[in-house]
Amino acid sequence: MATQRRYRWEGLDDEALLQLRFRELRLRLDSSSAWPEVERLHADLDRRGIRFKPHAWLSDEWFSPDRVPGIAIPFYVAHPRLRLLERRCLGVVEGGSRKWLTRILRHEAGHALDTAYGLRRRAEWRRVFGSPSEPYPHDYTPRPSSRRHVLHLGHWYAQSHPTEDFAETFAVWLQPKARWRREYAGWPALAKLEYVDRLMAEIAGQRPINRDRSVVDALFTNERTLASYYRGKTALYRSCDRRYDRWLQRAFATRTARQSGVPAGRFIREIRPQLRRLLVRRARMHPYLVDHAIDTTVQRTRQLDLVLRGSRRECKRQVVRLHERVVLDVLRRNRENYAL
Predict the structure, then answer these.
(1) pLDDT, tens digit, 9 for 90 and up, residues 182-236
(2) CA 192, CA 166: separation in Å to the nearest integer?
(3) What pLDDT score does 237 carry?
(4) Residue 180 burial (CB < 10 Å; 0-12/13-18/19+)?
């Protein structure tokens, strides 16, 4: 297991840290808190007989480049101090927990594997997942009730594009076979998982045809300051769904009205396990749908800087009712039921 390196910038306050350029962080992935998960991914692939192991490097975003079978990992998952900065600036750390990090790595490994073996060029791949040359959408409207796609990353991401459908299906396939067969029994998505199962058995032990070990947009060459990066990300996050703003503003108070109020997003995160269990049991809705509703409200309450109107105990019931409304609205807009 990697030993976490010490850095001179760890003790800096946020303002000073934001003035640094990415290259000045001098981060190393192989001595970071993210490295054990990369090694675990390689071990998972090895257990499945897959000879290919995607190389990984630090960058400013998650991605697997076109024509390069590797994985770029964002800088903030590599160190606790940077995860804290990410949360303070954006309210969420994508891949900030071990479980979430594992999910994203498996997804990006699907893209890298596709590139390494040229899988999308196969006629059966295209028949199962669709044409990889379809335009990549700037945005998409998912169907929460659809059972033609697996559920892995948030926002029904497998529905966004055929290449994402494959990457998500591969990520689920990398779990134990008994689990995905049980979880997707009776779903059309099971046929996609079974195809990936056959495909991986076919390429097991084979050397990849693309062995490019290039790194793209590496952190150590990035001259951008963290302040500039977060200004851009904050502007992007502001262009979000405002559909539930009126409900949120009725349930919570503004910071100007209650200066000492508990941040609403923090409170929802605190009670998330209990809230999730209650919503799944009461409405008999799939946990994936419930997680989407919770993630939506947490992100938007932070953007609006909303706080609790009263004590935690007084607000808990209001928070449950709010999330029930959000879940039902998602279903109503899709005009279909999505029960367990």
Answers:
(1) 999 999 999 999 999 999 999 999 999 999 999 999 999 999 999 999 999 887 6
(2) 8
(3) 64
(4) buried
Answer for the pair 166, 119: CB distance below 8 angstroms, yes or no.
yes
In sequence order, the β-bridge partners of residue 71 are: 56
Angle, alpha carbons 78-80-83 (nearest 5°): 80
Whether residue 317 contacts residue 284, with contact meaning beta carbons closer than 8 Å, is answered with no
Contact 73, 64 (CB under 8 A): no
Instruction: Please list the residues that pair with 63 across neighbouring strands.
Output: 72
Tokens 């804290």 belong to: 84
Nearest to 56 by CA among 97, 3, 99, 112: 112
Residue 129 per-residue DSSP state: H
Closest CA to 9 of 1, 20, 271: 20
Residues in the chain where the model's pLDDT stays below 50: 1, 340
* pTM reported for the whole predicted model: 0.86
Q: By CB neighbour count within 10 A (0-12 exposed, 13-18 middle, 19+ buried), where does 278 fall? A: middle
